[in-house]
Design brief:
The chain is α/β, with parallel strands linked by helices and 324 residues long. It has one domain (26-323): TIM Barrel, CATH 3.20.20.70. The chain is built from 12 helices and 10 strands. The chain has helices spanning 10-13, 16-21, 63-72, 99-110, 142-159, 173-183, 204-209, 229-242, 256-265, 276-287, 293-306, 317-323; strands at 32-39, 45-47, 55-58, 76-81, 115-120, 163-166, 190-197, 246-250, 270-274, 311-314. An 8-stranded parallel β-barrel has the order 1-4-5-6-7-8-9-10, surrounded by 8 helices. A hairpin with a 7-residue loop joins strand 2 (45-47) and strand 3. Helix 3 (63-72) packs parallel to helix 12 (317-323), helix 4 runs parallel beside helix 5 and helix 5 crosses helix 6 (173-183). The protein starts with 9 loop residues before the first helix and ends with a helix. It binds ligand PBG. The site of ligand PBG has 10 residues, from helix 7.
């Protein structure tokens, strides 16, 4: 007797059948959400320079991205828009003639079974590129922005969104958007809230894709400091208390710890967003030959599931769904 139990971990790892049977976390097509950029015009499918492999799509050509994704098993889509015009208050965000609203109406009718999520933010629509309107002192005006966001969420719900995803990070946004939706009879429209959205360098390529880089300053006044995990959890807790239906954590890879801490605190469903910078980083490492494409993509996204996320939002959704 050695005193040690006769444990050999290999007994449960070596047999590939048993290994597959015992997989604790799985990544499947149903877990994936594909973000899509819609632009004005007709017949447009134009490559986004900062995100090779990702395109701007005009509404009429959306079937070319949705159908292959949906055939591969992707069920949900998140929409960002490039508007026809921008102004200080981002009024094109709640204009029903703009790309996101037209896309939602078109897709809701054409594909009744897919799930439509609208990103609700002002930064793509304001001339200064901040996520809200400015007060005279040049800072983002939290409470005035809540009104604009509510109008935006409402117009997205009217156009056909199943869920709205406020990503502006103003305080009180979930409560404000919930009230606005309920008052207008959209109580069935859910709120997928960017509960933990860090001030991150990894949004760089997106800002070029969405034309939403701030014209001055940065977003550190309203996005969360990566050095402060407790503050991040506290901020996310507010979204839970205000009635968010689903929480988003981003950028996913750098926030796995946050996802797993949130997982222990709430039973709400949660999504991790593998953002533009992670997309570019992975592609760069893969195309240099340093990483195996399939193994790296699956491992990266599976890690987000392992951290406790139910869903993974990713520009790789169609490709991953085909691999899985
Ligand atoms: C809008 C928004 C951003 C992203 C999602 N919603 C950009 C930002 O906050 O600057 C980033 C997504 C990505 O990088 O893929 N506020």
């Amino acid at each position: 007797m050695s005193g040690f139990p006769k444990i050999r971990m290999r007994r449960i790892r070596e047999n590939s059948t048993l290994r597959a049977m015992l997989a604790e976390v799985a990544l499947e097509p149903r877990h994936l959400v594909l973000p899509i950029f819609v632009c004005p015009g007709e017949g447009v499918s134009s490559p986004i320079a900062s995100m090779p492999g990702v395109f701007h799509w005009s509404v009429d050509r959306l079937p070319e991205i949705i159908e292959p994704a949906s055939d591969a098993g992707v069920k949900a889509y998140l929409f960002f828009g490039l508007p026809d015009y921008k102004d200080a208050n981002g009024t094109s965000a709640f204009d029903s003639s703009q790309p996101v609203q037209r896309a939602l109406a078109f897709l809701r009718e054409k594909y009744p079974d897919i799930f439509l999520i609208a990103d609700t933010c002002m930064c793509e629509y304001t001339s200064h590129g901040h996520c809200g309107c400015l007060s005279p002192n040049g800072r983002v005006d939290n409470d005035e922005t809540l009104k604009l966001l509510s109008m935006t969420a409402l117009s997205q719900a009217k156009a056909g969104a199943h869920m709205v995803a406020p990503s502006d990070m103003m305080d009180g946004r979930v409560d404000a958007v919930r009230d606005a939706l309920d008052k207008e009879g959209f109580s069935e429209v859910g709120i997928m809230s960017y509960a933990a959205k860090l001030a991150s360098a990894f949004y760089g390529p997106f800002r070029e894709a969405a034309g939403s880089a701030p014209g001055f300053g940065d977003r550190r006044g309203y996005q969360l400091p990566p050095s402060n995990p407790r503050e991040i959890i506290r901020d996310a807790t507010l979204d839970i208390e205000e009635g968010a239906d689903l929480l988003i954590v981003k950028p996913a890879g750098p926030c796995l710890d946050i996802a797993s801490r949130l997982r222990e605190r709430t039973d709400l469903p949660m999504a991790g967003y593998v953002v533009s910078g992670e997309y570019v980083m992975l592609n760069a490492a893969i195309s240099s030959g340093a990483l195996d494409r399939e193994r790296a993509l699956i491992e990266y996204h599976l890690s987000v599931r392992r951290a406790g996320c139910d869903l993974v939002m990713t520009y790789f959704a169609t490709e991953l769904a085909r691999m899985l």
